[in-house]
Amino acid sequence: MFTSKLLLTAAAALSVAPKLLRAEFCSDGKCSDEVEKAKLASDAAEKYRPEDSIFSKIIRKEIPADIIHEDEKAIAFRDVNPVAPKHILVIPRKPITQLATSTEQDIPLLGHLLWVAKSVAEKENLNDSGYRIVINNGRDAAQSVYHLHIHILGGRQMSWPPG
Ligand code: AMP
Fold this sequence. Notes:
By secondary structure, this protein is of the alpha+beta class. The chain is 36% helix and 15% strand. The longest helix is centred in the first third of the chain and has 24 residues. It binds adenosine monophosphate.
């Protein structure tokens, strides 16, 4: 019984692996179409184990990242593909896939993430010039990594509405 469950889990993981790999690594220049990237990630997310995400691997220090803040609930690191002179991601250690899947239990954690974003922006000297906080949630928002994250964007003039 246990073995067959294990085999099923392994088979499921293998069947989504190509999509996951493409969805998560196309930010390194192999995939330039943000919308296509988000659709792939959204498809993959349906079968996703958040603890397999690239951000969980950063939390576990299995892959490198330029980490600028760590505490018991959250970490912040520089985005590998910045879209502004300062582009930092704040993520919970808890593997929540997206804002939409957070629960009432997560209210203190969500508040903490916003507080970390505020503190990091201050340390990065963004207070005077200003900065933008973004959470992409799901396909239409072009979310590409299914581990909740707050983008801090600063260091240039931005426009509105976003594309
Ligand atoms: P989103 O499109 O809102 O899901 O944002 C995901 C962000 O994660 C993108 O801005 C990517 O550039 C960024 N990203 C993906 N992989 C890494 C990584 N290994 N280290 C840092 N940032 C990453």
